[in-house]
């Protein structure tokens, strides 16, 4: 059983890897045998991982999620640190920087969308840079709008679901937004308008698609 602890995430692997190319390991090791290695160093690991994620939401209480991923897609890291060889995302999630992203095409309210992300050990997407926004919008349908993890539940201050600071200088609102139309627009979507992807505040009960985000799993 393999145990690795990083970024407040514990990963327990209870089945052997089916791909066993670990050329940097001892040749006598049961995992040290040569196997086919794709040029792009992207490996599909088929194993069962029990992933315990500790997340802190708006009520500032820690919530533990236990997930069962049957497949991870991992990329070998070129790092001097020997204890972090692979960075992984669950299958069908897209990697960028230190996170993984999943686009849900099912329409739901903001709270239902956040609950779905939470059930996967994630939260609605938090955006802190233009590069991050440009990455995810390349995969989105320009005819749809997608919930992100920003809301103004108190009508006083915008807050991210992961409790990272809301930085006014690193926001990407459409012109004239947020406008809190009819005093009931407390949630945020990212949408394509006037040839550009940016943010718009809307009522939280609107049915929209969403983007989930979680930290990468390091092995």
TrEMBL record:
Q: Which GO terms describe its cellular component?
A: plasma membrane
Coiled-coil stretches are: none
- Keyword Transmembrane helix in annotation: yes
Give the bilayer topology: Single-pass type II membrane protein
- Tell me which SMART domains the record gives: CLECT
Matches recorded under Pfam families: Lectin_C (PF00059)
Alphabetically, the GO molecular function entries are:
carbohydrate binding; metal ion binding
Q: Which Gene3D superfamilies match?
A: Mannose-Binding Protein A, subunit A
Q: Kindly list the places in or outside the cell where this protein is found, as annotated in its UniProt entry.
A: Cell membrane
Q: Which InterPro entries match?
A: C-type_lectin-like (IPR001304), C-type_lectin-like/link_sf (IPR016186), C-type_lectin/snaclec_domain (IPR050111), C-type_lectin_CS (IPR018378), CD209-like_CTLD (IPR033989), CTDL_fold (IPR016187)
> What processes in GO biological process is this protein linked to?
adaptive immune response; innate immune response
Q: Which domain of life is it from?
A: Eukaryota
Q: Which residues are in the C-type lectin domain?
A: 96-213
- Region forming the signal peptide: none
Recite the UniProt keywords alphabetically.
Adaptive immunity, Calcium, Cell membrane, Disulfide bond, Glycoprotein, Immunity, Innate immunity, Lectin, Membrane, Metal-binding, Signal-anchor, Transmembrane, Transmembrane helix
Q: What is this protein called?
A: C-type lectin domain-containing protein
Species the sequence originates in:
Peromyscus maniculatus bairdii (Prairie deer mouse)
């Amino acid at each position: 059983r393999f145990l690795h602890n990083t970024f407040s995430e514990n990963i327990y692997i209870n089945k052997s890897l089916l791909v066993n190319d670990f050329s940097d390991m001892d040749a006598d090791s049961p995992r040290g045998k040569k196997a086919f290695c794709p040029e792009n160093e992207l490996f599909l690991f088929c194993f069962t991982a029990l992933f315990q994620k500790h997340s802190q939401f708006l009520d500032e209480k820690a919530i533990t999620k236990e997930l069962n991923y049957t497949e991870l897609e991992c990329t070998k890291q070129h790092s001097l640190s020997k204890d972090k060889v692979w960075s992984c995302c669950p299958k069908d999630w897209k990697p960028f920087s230190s996170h993984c992203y999943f686009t849900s095409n099912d329409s739901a309210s903001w709270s239902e969308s956040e609950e779905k992300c939470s059930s996967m050990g994630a939260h609605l997407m938090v955006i802190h840079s233009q590069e991050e926004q440009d990455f995810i919008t390349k995969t989105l349908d320009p005819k749809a709008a997608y919930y992100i993890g920003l809301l103004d539940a108190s009508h006083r201050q915008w807050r991210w679901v992961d409790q990272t600071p809301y930085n006014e200088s690193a926001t990407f609102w459409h012109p004239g937004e947020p406008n809190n139309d009819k005093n009931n627009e407390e949630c945020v979507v990212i949408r394509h308008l006037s040839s550009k992807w940016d943010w718009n505040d809307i009522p939280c009960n609107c049915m929209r698609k969403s983007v989930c985000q979680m930290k990468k799993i390091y092995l």
